[in-house]
Write a structure and sequence with these properties.
single chain; alpha/beta; 6-stranded mixed β-sheet; 5-stranded parallel β-sheet
């Protein structure tokens, strides 16, 4: 608890603007944010407030610091480009004594890793919150969100991409797929959505994608995913990268995805002529 009596919220922060969005929402709820910055978060200049940066090898130090700061509730948010690799780092003593459990935590795909991590942190006395518990306004609403409605061809592409993203999520391999109405163009792997869209831009430049082939990007929550972590998200930069890749429609899981800066995202999409939808139901329909 802070000196002024406010409850402290621990934010395990990566890169991008989401950590500060969550922090500002926490402040509005009368909480004081405290940042433990990892990976991309170590150089995240947008983070303002009480914070410390930790290398993966000092994860144990971060846990002890958060406890010393009186943090009980934790939220994870922001981009993490590099997974923890405790086999190739020199850990601090506080991390070393936790190493056997740490090595078990980092096995598997992202969702498995985060589930393992959540169980460990709960055993350390922390209460893990989802981003949407702090900032529910970030959740994507259902339906067409832009001025333009998807064409029949784009709707078919959204449906195909959504079905593929769901299958991909079953494997805990990724959350995003790009498709036309006839075929899958790209599926997200460890490179992430941004690199996948750059790859699609290269495909189009190499004429591997038809000039009139309309593409849709879908970012979907994984079946059975722990909704406290790593919800699919889009921001203004997503719209910029989609436009560069020749993508004309974007769909996200309604109520289970985040739109970072809703008004700015929709304004940018309208300017670019993209259709953006919150997809509901098993078939990812945009009603």
């Amino acid at each position: 608890m802070a000196e002024d009596g406010r409850e402290r919220l621990g934010i395990v922060a990566g890169g991008g603007g989401l950590p500060m969005i969550v922090a500002n929402a926490a402040i509005e709820k009368g909480m004081e944010p405290v940042f433990a910055r990892f990976s991309d978060g170590m150089t995240n200049d947008s983070i303002i407030g009480r914070s410390r940066a930790f290398a993966w090898g000092r994860t144990g130090d971060a846990i002890e610091w958060l406890k010393a700061e009186g943090v009980q509730k934790l939220v994870f948010c922001g981009t993490i480009s590099s997974r923890p690799d405790f086999r190739s780092i020199l850990p601090s003593f506080k991390t070393l004594k936790r190493l056997p459990r740490a090595l078990r935590i980092v096995k598997g795909g992202d969702d498995r890793l985060l589930r393992n991590l959540s169980r460990y942190l709960e055993s350390e006395g922390f209460d893990l919150l989802p981003v949407q518990a702090v900032a529910p306004e970030l959740l994507a609403p259902e339906g067409v969100l832009t001025a333009r409605t998807p064409t029949a061809e784009e709707s078919a592409a959204l449906d195909l991409a959504h079905r593929a993203a769901t299958a991909l999520g079953v494997l805990d391999a990724g959350q995003a797929v790009i498709a036309s109405n006839e075929r899958i163009i790209a599926m997200e792997g460890i490179e992430g959505t941004r690199a996948m869209m750059r790859r699609v831009a290269e495909y189009r430049a190499a004429r591997k994608i038809g000039r009139g082939e309309r593409l849709a990007l879908v970012k979907a929550v994984k079946p059975g995913q722990d909704r406290r972590f790593d919800l699919p998200s889009i921001g203004v930069q997503t719209i910029d990268e989609a436009e560069a890749a020749g993508i004309t429609a974007i769909g996200v899981s309604a109520g289970e995805s985040l739109i970072l800066g809703f008004d700015d995202v929709i304004d940018r999409a309208n300017t670019a002529g993209l259709a953006v939808c919150g997809l509901g139901g098993e078939q990812g329909t945009a009603r």
